[in-house]
Amino acid sequence: MPTPIFSLYSMIDGRSVLAFIPARGGSKGLPGKNLCRLGGRPLLEWTVAAAKGAKAIDHIILSTEDESILECGRALGCDIPFRRPPALATDTSRTIHVLHHLLDNIDTRWDYVVQLQPTSPLRSSIDIDDALALCIDVAAPSCVSVCPSAKSPSLICTVDEDCRMKPVVSLPLNLSRRQDVGDFYEINGAIYIARTDWISGRESFLSDNTVAYVMPRDRSIDIDSELDLLIAESLLSRRSTQ
Q1: Looking at residue 212, what is its pLDDT?
Q2: Dihedral through CA 230, CA 235, CA 241, CA 242, nearest 10?
Q3: Average pLDDT for residues 180-207, to the nearest whole number?
Q4: What is the Cα Rg of the chain in Å?
Q5: Residues 212, 184: contact at Cβ < 8 Å?
Q6: pLDDT in tens, 156-172
Q7: Burial zone of 48 (CB within 10 Å; 0-12 exposed, 13-18 middle, 19+ buried)
Q8: CA pair distance 237, 19, nearest whole angstrom
Q9: Mean of the pLDDT values across residues 169-180?
Q10: pTM of the predicted structure, to 2 decimals
Q11: What distance in Å separates the CA atoms of residue 188 and residue 150, rounded to the nearest whole number?
């Protein structure tokens, strides 16, 4: 296992930390994706295992409306205080609103909440602990995991109905190469952390004071398609041979 970037677990002592796993049943890109098998285990199990292995996590709550996910979550030892309301389980439902509903309807008050999506199965327990340690060490209200971007923003464009291209970000021609403009990072969806008093009522984990926890790309796969699942299987296979 990689050496932790931060070894400040003692700083988390005295602060209660809730792991929140949102797992809706429906999915257009990959039907039933939260229970898709990866390395012989459902995606949900990978995230529950990482949360259980994290030293700083005190409690794990699963939020879902789906009966099969409920059964799997119970078997894995998740707390499921209630079934997610249908209004928060649609294609247009935002996960931040699911989190608000959860925090408003549980009795226990937590100092920090860590949102862990089942579609990021390769994040590790160490990633969770180190991201929490970073957030607390720099006194940030929130922390979001990122990974190095594979492309420079200058290569990303929109294409209209007439096939006309328009760059999303315009850079001078002499800065068109990635090595000329420095490093870029993208949110990888693996870890979202916030103080619960801060996130209440907010529409995003992101703010000017949010800090980034950098993860390598090989632990940053976000599964939303069959291709993503194949890539994750390949990454797991490579791990087993190293």
Answers
A1: 98
A2: 170
A3: 91
A4: 19
A5: no
A6: 889 999 999 998 877 66
A7: buried
A8: 28
A9: 60
A10: 0.89
A11: 12
Taking 50 as the threshold, does the pLDDT of residue 4 lie above it? no
Q: How many CB atoms sit inside 10 A of residue 168's CB?
A: 10
Hey, is 44 helix, strand or coil? Answer: helix
Identify whether the C-beta of residue 21 lies closer than 8 Å to the C-beta of residue 219: no
Model pLDDT for residues 16-43, shown as the tens digit of each residue: 999 999 999 977 778 899 999 999 999 9
12: which 2 tokens?
A: 């988390």
Residue keyed to tokens 């939303």:
224
Q: Is 179 exposed, middle or buried (0-12, 13-18, 19+ CB in 10 A)?
A: exposed
Q: What is the DSSP string of 55-107?
A: TT--EEEEE-S-HHHHHHHHHTT-B--SPPPGGGSSTT--HHHHHHHHHHT-S
Give the orientation angle of helix 43-53 with respect to helix 67-75, to 10 degrees.
40
Task: State the Cα–Cα distance between residues 196 and 34, nearest whole angstrom.
Answer: 25
Per-residue confidence (pLDDT) for residue 151, from 0 to 100: 78
CA-nearest of 64, 121, 66 to 98 is 64
The residue type found at 43 is L
Please give the structure tokens belonging to residue 152: 């420079």
